[in-house]
Amino acid sequence: MVNVVNPPHPQHQSPSLPEGVRVRLARSAYGNPRATAEAAAALSGRQVSGLDPLPYEPAELAPALLLGHRRRIRRLPEDTRHLLLVAAADQYPVPTHAFLRAVAAAGLDTASADPAETAGIAHVSAAGVTFRDPWIRVAAYEAASAQDRREAHHLLARVLGGAGEAGLRSWHRGAAALGPSRRLTAELVAAAAEARRHRQPALARALTQRAAELCPDPAAVPRLFEQAAADAWQDGDSDRARDLVADVHDSPLRAVLALRCGTATDAFDDLLDAAAGLASSDPEHATELLARAVEAAIYTGDLRRCREAAAVAAHHGLVPPGTLGGLAAAADGRYTDARDALTAAARRHGPDDGPSHLTHSGIAALLLGDHTRAAFATARAVTAARARGDAVAVPQALEFRTYAEFWTGRPHAAEAAALDALRQAHETGQDNGACHLQAALAMFAAVTGDEAACRARAEAARAYALPRGLGLAAALAVWALAFLDLSSGHPAEAAARLRALAGFGPGHGHRAIRHLATPHYVEAAVRTGDTRVARAALADYERWATAVRSPADLALAARSRALLAPGAEADEHYRTALDLHAAGTRDFERARTELLYGSALRRLRRRAEARDRLHSAHEAFVYFGAPHCAAQARAELRALGGSGESGAVPPTDVTARLTAQQLMIARMAADGATNREIAARLVLSHRTIDHHLRGVFARLGIRSRIELVRLLADA
Question: Best label site of 65, 162, 241, 564, fewest CB within 10 Å?
Fold first, then answer.
């Protein structure tokens, strides 16, 4: 509901914060600007940087705001306060939907709520009490004495006796307890287990945390807090999870949290140690931790450490994730062995597999260049995560689904998936995943020629990635900037970036990204005339492409050979590349091959063939929303004596004159969204949106949003 009691004021705007911190603070503060600003002002440097968990309890978030609401509540008549307390206890911190039954059982008079309605605090209807603001609801609960709160919980527990309400009844019984109780602890633990079976992680967390607080056995308390943290993590409440597990020593969950929102290099060692420690007592959990260790190696770019993980799996008789053997073999240069292991992993998934297994299958397929299989596996991973109520697994799966969508010719779906994943990664506190997604979005922006967004996202990704050793994101950001340079006519800058990328070790670079960028490096090197290092890189790329038999990779290897071949000798390589592209899925790279082939044909004075290739490339670039590449194709066509237009898309078409991101922003603006609203939806700064809209207006030759609405309506 809209907070009409405390409207936001300019002085209550929160200071500049990292996007993930800002999003999570706003969510914990129920979207209240005053509460968010108060919480932001009190954060420590470590909290702002994401090293320590953020506050999540109302009393910690915005004590001054809460104090003001408490004072308003305490000015109400006693009967009114009591009715509001029962309603608040029924809704906060666990919703149980028993208020009306409690009112009837206790013989309370709902007319006593009239003063609250008069004061604009809450109103009563047939559905119960509706508070005007979540913070008022919290204040109504916390303004009461501890004894009054316990009595309210006793009353609610007494009326919760219906089918499926045992867990809610146990919650209220636990909330009403005065002190430690072995019997009540056991009841809460059993109720939490039942909540997990019904995929209710928020309720399971609350029950288990209360069990830990009431447990009389000190030895059992750490494990209960660890389980409560695991439930909070599955529910996407990362700050609570990190806080609950902070004092639990040797917790595997702490290593998992470090992987997703800490230092991934440290996480690898901790995950490997935890997997070894659990191998005999809980092999299923140990195998899951081993999979997380592989993810840490992927994030950091230290793929050689996969050998260590493989040794742990072999020593303890664990079944490793299929990607492990493939990555270990690839790191050793055993490409045939890597292909066999990755192929088995890509195909090894069934109808009941969980999101982690499916995500690893998708990663294996991506490494093999099988983007169709990768899209299928990662889409299933997202579906499985949502069906299980596993909030943190959804953005993890979406991270890799974005690549599959992009390479299979769906750039707009890829960008939409990445933006969705970025929002969810921020909400669930997975800042390392968010960094990776920022780098992926930088690459998409490079492809669509959106220079401002590419540079902003790439620099943001590198600034976060480098101190945390996230080699995957750092390398992907460099590749994005290099491709932007290459497609903008700056091959020397592109070659320098990609040559430097080859020298970056784990934490700053990534072998897989360096490998994938090889065709672009060859192109940049040929344009600058310095091909010595590029030839060596291509030889390794060809070894991998030959081993995995990926048509797309073989096509790019043939294209690179064509670029390095003199004159007419390139023709055979280009034809081979296009034949292989026809069996692959990377339509954007096929268009680039046609562009390069068309340019070569023009220089050989084979004008008719050149024109056909360049027209085809131009059409593909327009579809992809890649104006820089389309401009290159038009320049080549003009050099042939044509107009530079393929005829497939009229030059007056609005959509042809804007990049994909500019078009998306233009449509949002035409629908009435403000710049800040557009920025929030796309997870960009409002200044970047301002820049984009100025570019839109300039390209379309207009001066107002009214003209924009008219143009888009006619487009």
Answer: 162
